[in-house]
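Fig. S4 source data, part A: sequence.
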Amino acid sequence: MESQNKRTLGAFLGVYTPTILTILGVIMYLRFGWVVGHLSLVNTWIIVILANTITLITTLSFSSMATNMKVGGGGAYFIISRSLGLGIGAAIGIPLFVAQAVSVTLYAYGLAESIRIIWADVPLDLTCLVIILVVAGISFYGTKFALKSQLPLLILVAISIGALTYGALFTTRTISLPLLDSLEYPDFWFGFAVFFPAVTGVTAGLSLSGDLKNPSKAIPLGAIAACITGLIIYMIVPWLLTQGAEPEELRTNPLIWLTIAPLGLFLVLPGLWGAILSSAVGSVLGAPRTLQAVTKDQISNLRLKSFMDSIWGERTTLGISVLIALGAIYLGNLNTVATVVTMFFLTVYGTINIAAGLESLSGDPSWRPKFTIPWYFNIACGIACIWVMFLISPLASIVAISIEIVIWLLFARREQLAVWGDARRGVYEAALRWILIRLSRRSLSARNWRPHILVFVDDAKRKLDLIKFSTWFSQNRGVVTVCELIVGDLLENEINIDERLNKIQELLTDEDLNVFPEIDIVDNIIDGIADVSQANGIAGFASNTIILGWPKDPKMMVDFLITTQRLEKIKKSVVVGKINPQHIFPVRKTKREIHVWWGGLKQNGDLMLLLAYLLIRNPEWRGAELKILCASSNEFAQENTKRYLETMLRDIRIDAECDVFIKSKDQNISDLIQTRSATADAVFLGLAIPEKGKEMEYVNRLDSLVGDLPVVFFVKNSSLFVGKLLEPEELEIE
């Protein structure tokens, strides 16, 4: 094998020749008559048209992608991995490698069956083994040598087809083969499975992409020409077979070509052997390159990468391919091997088509192929591949797809290390745009409201607990953004924003938090929070709840209160969290409690209760007891408040305990809160906007109100639906 760095092959020698010789291979010579004899001429034509439609669209798909990128080694794997990511690329690339390696066994079986004409007693398995080793030996001496040896073989194939044509048209026979009638066994789809490997050769040239001088030009030209040539020949050959032999002969004689053609032993047999040998060479050249490309993408060790690029890496992958081909001998016979190859190639073709369709759908400006086909043809063909798989064998299809899913799961994390983009990002953006346009046309109601949270922190690592509570409040239904605010001048600031942003993202990923990080440099905290809150969002989809951490400096809390006034103007609710992380999950407790202190004015109560309800729906808080506490001045107020709260909870379908108590005049509300909520794991209190100039007094009051309670959230409801977030649904049309 030659180094992949030597790109010397053109469209004819590097793509057309291996492709057409792989197409015109063992199935055409040894199984085409069997298919025609069992399924009739018309059904055979339907199989040919269906199979070639799949491969032609697939050829157009990978050809268009090849004109849009610089194709490296690995062929189909390279294209899929660069379009759908390394994980999906590996999930398809490894089965593709196995299919290519097992294809060598398929051709070896065909050649062994034909050799039995001369040596009837030769053992089939041993002959296959020898053939595989011979083919591997040819490939060992280099790609160009192997491909140049195929040119004489192409001439022999042409001579054999000419001999079949002459024998079928100019030999008088009694023909009784009906056009439509077929036998009950095998069924149509089994016949399709046996035939389909005949057209899988369209990726033979693609597998040699790393050896092509100009892949973007050679792949479309050579592959499409070979595909059309194969279609024409496969439409003619079944008709010639029906003209030259009787049904029983077609069904029982795998070497019927030798009977129909004059001097078949001398004119057909060399072409048969040449086609089979060249197909085997094409597969054994392609399989190592696929494995090599997959391995180089999936390993990060530079020494191993260097080894895979060396001649020893190429020979190692060739050796693995040969071992798999030898192992496939134990599958038993040509028909079984053909079915296995069909299943794997169908998944590859389906993925190639879906990848091409997604590239078109993504609308990425970088998608500029020299030619393309409508995306719905790509997607329809991809779905057709999966559909045909299940028609052939549902069980085998499930097994094949399951194997690929397992491989994808194993390699999915590797995708994060890829430095190139892929089609999925473009598809997601196109889908997001489509959704946002339609979302903007739907009015928001209290029924649809959910917290989309913007968390402001000075250090994401130190305020990780505040971020966690934000994700619990959103319950993975809303969007959570964490914003690190840096006070300074944007032009003079020397902080590496990208590096810092990556560190925050790593922190969030390690904690398994689905949060979007951002860093903003602002002139001051008050203006910064207000400005970022106004700018946050897109197309009417914006944060509606701002979460701040209780600062150590009381003056900073004063700034937060001033900011809250501004945020109220733009309908942003504010939650200030005072959290002692050591008390979030105390070990001593078997059951957690969440307390909501109800003020009675409903301005903040509905949002407090909703956030508490969302909190207990998270796995970390599931089973926690929710309690509403309210202080009343007398028994009459106590009874009315309790009745109101119980009715409200029943109507809004939230399970909570009501604790309405009478507060005597000499009792301090701070003492009541700290005493009654001493064992609570989270406490919710309302937040008011103090009069101008009294902010510090209000901050001190809040601080004394909760004392050393471990987790407290002060809530200011400024949403579009103040007092309506928990009302029962009114479904009547006004």
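Fig. S4 source data, part B ends here. The chain has two domains: 11-413, 453-716.
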